């Protein structure tokens, strides 16, 4: 089973992808996480992406398509994958289509996490993760049970993404509106697009997704 998660930044794609990964034994592929790892390594890709990411702009299609293509060719993806943060432009959607056809694969489900734009900025600026195990939290909607202690691993260290600052979020939302939202009709035409209300509590969003998955 191959899945695409669409939705604006802060819609909950990462959180829901991780839950699906565990529940269905799929591989989560987050192009944002891959790029952050490249930036941390200081690779050529990382150097090309760094300043664009810091200012909330998308990195060029050719760079991201090459990176994604080599990732989905890896053996662990044979059991199925969840694309989180890709495709983000019409060019990427078309390139994905072509690369899947060439390897006899296809997308089974496209999940669109629908969240009103006016609540996204607050959501994003409130989020943070455990520096040790990566568990995700939000100051308002999902704080750790004990203040300053990770629920999952007990660590006291947390981190925030550099691009979750309010001014960068504004730019990321602009990029989403201009370049990513226009790909929704592309997937609507395939009949595989399912809109999910992403404004409900996390467990209710998961329940909606599970209903869609049960129908596959
Ligand atoms: P994300 O973690 O998905 O929010 O992505 C963080 C940043 O990485 C984005 O704001 C972009 O700068 C870059 N990025 C991630 N995925 C893509 C993509 N598919 N196309 C272009 N840029 C991307």
Automatic annotation (TrEMBL):
<feature type="binding site">
    <location>
        <position position="200"/>
    </location>
    <ligand>
        <name>ATP</name>
    </ligand>
</feature>
<feature type="binding site">
    <location>
        <begin position="10"/>
        <end position="15"/>
    </location>
    <ligand>
        <name>ATP</name>
    </ligand>
</feature>
<feature type="binding site">
    <location>
        <begin position="136"/>
        <end position="137"/>
    </location>
    <ligand>
        <name>ATP</name>
    </ligand>
</feature>
<feature type="binding site">
    <location>
        <begin position="85"/>
        <end position="88"/>
    </location>
    <ligand>
        <name>AMP</name>
    </ligand>
</feature>
<feature type="binding site">
    <location>
        <position position="127"/>
    </location>
    <ligand>
        <name>ATP</name>
    </ligand>
</feature>
<dbReference type="InterPro" id="IPR000850">
    <property type="entry name" value="Adenylat/UMP-CMP_kin"/>
</dbReference>
<dbReference type="GO" id="GO:0005737">
    <property type="term" value="C:cytoplasm"/>
</dbReference>
<comment type="similarity">
    <text>Belongs to the adenylate kinase family.</text>
</comment>
<feature type="binding site">
    <location>
        <position position="31"/>
    </location>
    <ligand>
        <name>AMP</name>
    </ligand>
</feature>
<keyword id="KW-0067">ATP-binding</keyword>
<dbReference type="GO" id="GO:0044209">
    <property type="term" value="P:AMP salvage"/>
</dbReference>
<dbReference type="InterPro" id="IPR033690">
    <property type="entry name" value="Adenylat_kinase_CS"/>
</dbReference>
<keyword id="KW-0547">Nucleotide-binding</keyword>
<feature type="domain" description="Adenylate kinase active site lid">
    <location>
        <begin position="127"/>
        <end position="163"/>
    </location>
</feature>
<comment type="subunit">
    <text>Monomer.</text>
</comment>
<feature type="binding site">
    <location>
        <position position="130"/>
    </location>
    <ligand>
        <name>Zn(2+)</name>
    </ligand>
</feature>
<feature type="binding site">
    <location>
        <position position="153"/>
    </location>
    <ligand>
        <name>Zn(2+)</name>
    </ligand>
</feature>
<dbReference type="GO" id="GO:0004017">
    <property type="term" value="F:AMP kinase activity"/>
</dbReference>
<comment type="pathway">
    <text>Purine metabolism; AMP biosynthesis via salvage pathway; AMP from ADP: step 1/1.</text>
</comment>
<dbReference type="Pfam" id="PF00406">
    <property type="entry name" value="ADK"/>
</dbReference>
<dbReference type="Pfam" id="PF05191">
    <property type="entry name" value="ADK_lid"/>
</dbReference>
<feature type="region of interest" description="NMP">
    <location>
        <begin position="30"/>
        <end position="59"/>
    </location>
</feature>
<keyword id="KW-0418">Kinase</keyword>
<keyword id="KW-0862">Zinc</keyword>
<dbReference type="InterPro" id="IPR036193">
    <property type="entry name" value="ADK_active_lid_dom_sf"/>
</dbReference>
<feature type="binding site">
    <location>
        <position position="161"/>
    </location>
    <ligand>
        <name>AMP</name>
    </ligand>
</feature>
<feature type="binding site">
    <location>
        <position position="92"/>
    </location>
    <ligand>
        <name>AMP</name>
    </ligand>
</feature>
<dbReference type="InterPro" id="IPR027417">
    <property type="entry name" value="P-loop_NTPase"/>
</dbReference>
<feature type="binding site">
    <location>
        <position position="133"/>
    </location>
    <ligand>
        <name>Zn(2+)</name>
    </ligand>
</feature>
<keyword id="KW-0479">Metal-binding</keyword>
<feature type="binding site">
    <location>
        <position position="36"/>
    </location>
    <ligand>
        <name>AMP</name>
    </ligand>
</feature>
<feature type="binding site">
    <location>
        <begin position="57"/>
        <end position="59"/>
    </location>
    <ligand>
        <name>AMP</name>
    </ligand>
</feature>
<protein>
    <recommendedName>
        <fullName>Adenylate kinase</fullName>
        <ecNumber>2.7.4.3</ecNumber>
    </recommendedName>
</protein>
<keyword id="KW-0963">Cytoplasm</keyword>
<comment type="function">
    <text>Catalyzes the reversible transfer of the terminal phosphate group between ATP and AMP. Plays an important role in cellular energy homeostasis and in adenine nucleotide metabolism.</text>
</comment>
<dbReference type="InterPro" id="IPR007862">
    <property type="entry name" value="Adenylate_kinase_lid-dom"/>
</dbReference>
<dbReference type="InterPro" id="IPR006259">
    <property type="entry name" value="Adenyl_kin_sub"/>
</dbReference>
<keyword id="KW-0808">Transferase</keyword>
<feature type="binding site">
    <location>
        <position position="172"/>
    </location>
    <ligand>
        <name>AMP</name>
    </ligand>
</feature>
<dbReference type="GO" id="GO:0008270">
    <property type="term" value="F:zinc ion binding"/>
</dbReference>
<dbReference type="GO" id="GO:0005524">
    <property type="term" value="F:ATP binding"/>
</dbReference>
<keyword id="KW-0545">Nucleotide biosynthesis</keyword>
């Amino acid at each position: 089973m191959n899945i695409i998660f669409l939705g604006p930044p802060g819609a909950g794609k990462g959180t829901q992808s991780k839950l699906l990964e565990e529940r269905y034994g799929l591989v989560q592929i987050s192009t944002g996480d891959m790029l952050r790892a490249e930036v941390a390594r200081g690779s050529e890709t990382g150097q090309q992406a760094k300043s664009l990411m810091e200012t909330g702009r998308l990195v060029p299609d050719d760079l991201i398509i090459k990176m994604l293509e080599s990732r989905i060719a890896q053996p662990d993806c044979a059991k199925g994958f969840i694309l989180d943060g890709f495709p983000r432009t019409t060019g990427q959607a078309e390139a994905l289509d072509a690369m899947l056809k060439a390897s006899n694969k296809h997308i089974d489900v496209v999940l669109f996490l629908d969240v009103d734009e006016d609540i996204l900025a607050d959501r994003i600026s409130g989020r943070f993760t455990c520096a040790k195990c990566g568990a995700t939290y939000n100051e308002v909607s999902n704080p750790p049970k004990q203040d300053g202690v990770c629920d999952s691993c007990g660590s006291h260290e947390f981190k925030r993404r550099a691009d979750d600052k309010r001014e960068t979020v504004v730019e990321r939302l602009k990029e989403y509106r201009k370049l990513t939202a226009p790909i929704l009709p592309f997937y609507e035409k395939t009949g595989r697009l399912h809109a999910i209300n992403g404004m409900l509590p996390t467990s209710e969003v998961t329940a909606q997704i599970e209903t869609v998955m049960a129908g596959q």
